[in-house]
């Protein structure tokens, strides 16, 4: 965002972040209009589907970032690819667990997780084929800020309240702390 200066960069960042949050709320309203058959917990299934959509939007620019970083420096691309691979594990869990527990169907949960994961290589392929000459650090920053708005809004509005329903606060706190530590270590190591 350094291309825009501090003030413009902050304004663009905030607007992009808010647009991401508004989009996930709009998607949530669309999903709420449809009732899901054959589920034990319609609300839990909705959380899984929202996670899937948000993570697809999240994974797409990650694929672009891995391609672009590999294109410039293969060791940087490998490091970024490993870091993204590691954080995709809890992302897959965030999709699969709610869908499995709401439907009781392992195949459906795995299929939706797999579909979400395909967004990453699709992003890399599209970057290779069409976007490589248009992608800049600023554009990647804007896309990632948009996705951050999606993910944070989803976490605050959907994931935390649903987790609180199970009265296991110690696991929520442990998950937050473990996630923070892993994130910091990821940035320090890779």
Fold and architecture overview:
By secondary structure, this protein is mainly α. The protein has one domain. It is 86% helix and 0% strand. The longest helix has 31 residues. It is globular, with a radius of gyration of 18 Å. 28% of the residues are buried.
Q: What's the end-to-end separation, in Å?
A: 22 Å
Give the overall shape, derived from the CA principal axes.
globular
User: What value does the Rg take, in angstroms?
Assistant: 18 Å
User: What is the percent of helical residues?
Assistant: over 70%
- Record field, number of beta strands: 0
How is the biggest beta sheet arranged? none
Task: Give the number of helices.
Answer: 7
| Uncertain residue segments | none
The percentage of residues in β strands lies in under 5%
Domain module count: 1
Kindly state the mean pLDDT as a whole number? 82
Give the SSE order as H and E letters. HHHHHHH
Structural class: mainly alpha
Record the SSE blueprint:
Layout: H1 6-33, H2 42-72, H3 74-103, H4 106-117, H5 119-131, H6 137-164, H7 169-189
Describe the structure concisely.
The chain has 190 residues and is mainly α. The protein has helices at 6-33, 42-72, 74-103, 106-117, 119-131, 137-164, 169-189.
